[in-house]
Amino acid sequence: MPGIASHRVAVLPLYPGHLDARPRSVDKRARIVEAALQQFGEKGYHPVRVGDIAASLGIAKGSIFQHFGSKDGLFLQVYKQAVRSFPKYLDVPRETLALGFFEVLRGGMIRTEQRLRHDWIPYRVALLGNHGTDLALKREINRFLVAEDPYGTVNFVRFGLARHELRRDMDLEMIVSILDWMMERFQDALLTAELDSGLFRRQSEAAEDKEARIRQFLDVLRRSIGAAAPRPAPVIVHRRGASIAGKITKTPANIRR
After folding, report:
1. pLDDT in tens, 29-88
2. Which side of the chain, N or C, has fewer Cβ within a 10 Å radius?
3. Total domains, the chain
4. What is 179-243 written as a DSSP string?
5. Calpha distance 55→60 (Å, rounded)
6. Who's near 8: CB < 8 A, 6+ residues apart?
7. Distance between CA atoms of 155 and 161, rounded to whole angstroms?
8. How far apart are the first and last CA of the chain?
């Protein structure tokens, strides 16, 4: 589930949180995030109230604000936990890596759909962070994605460059950004179709149709950032001492008199 941030920024966050280093405080903070993860995932962002989260834990609402500052600050920590639970691009078996950059992408998209059937809460929270929050919170989410690179996109692009599968006439940061942009939109479409089918254009889709869409998407991505296929060597034809590359031309020896 890639993010959309595309440039490196150094700006103080709006929701830094108030982490107390004491073990009891750390444990309490973790319990709050876990409870909030469940509620945001099940209900969405706006319907969730901080008071309800506090009541489910048997603590005062003010305690949550003490740790996270605001509902936005709490959601930001929940989003981070959800995204950090996803595997990085290169977290695949060695035999999968051997298939190359675009096959790793393909396998990752297929596995994502399989995983969300068993643990859909973090994926729904990621969707909320990408599409269901205001611009101020979205800015903080983008800042986190850029600073931490939770999906390991930079290393994955370097992997593709080392295998000569990606363009070398394009800045690495630009390739990372294009991959982030395109993967986020396409992955979100797949996840939305699975988790909230009523929000997607087609409410039902056969598995083979999804596989075809994944292949088509990868073809578009390959045309965008993939290395150009080597051109075939010209055909050399030898005729009565004349070397002809790619086409046959007449020479004095074969002109009819």
Report:
1. 999 999 999 999 999 999 999 999 999 999 999 999 999 999 999 999 999 999 999 999
2. C
3. 1
4. HHHHHHHHHHHHHHHHH-GGGSSSS---HHHHHHHHHHHHHHHHHHHBPPPPPPPPPEEEETTEE
5. 7
6. 146
7. 10
8. 72
| Between residues 8 and 128, the one the model is more confident about | 128
Question: Is the Cβ–Cβ distance between 217 and 228 less than 8 Å?
Answer: no
Report which of 68, 51, 69, 48 is spatially closest to residue 60, judged by C-alpha positions.
Answer: 51
**Lookup: tokens for 83:** 């995204």
- 184's CB contacts (< 8 A; 6+ apart) are 1, 2, 3, 4, 130
Residues 110, 230: contact at Cβ < 8 Å?
no
Residue 238, judged by CB atoms within 10 A of its CB (0-12, 13-18, 19+), counts as exposed
Inside any domain, residue 168: yes
Token reading at 171: 């800045």
In terms of DSSP H, where are the helices of the chain?
A: 23-43, 50-57, 61-68, 71-84, 94-97, 101-116, 121-131, 135-148, 153-162, 172-195, 207-225
The residue segments making up the domain with residue 201 are 23-225
CATH number of the domain to which 77 belongs: 1.10.357.10
Task: Please indicate, yes or no, if residue 253 is contained in any of the structural domains.
Answer: no
Q: Which amino acid is at 32?
A: I
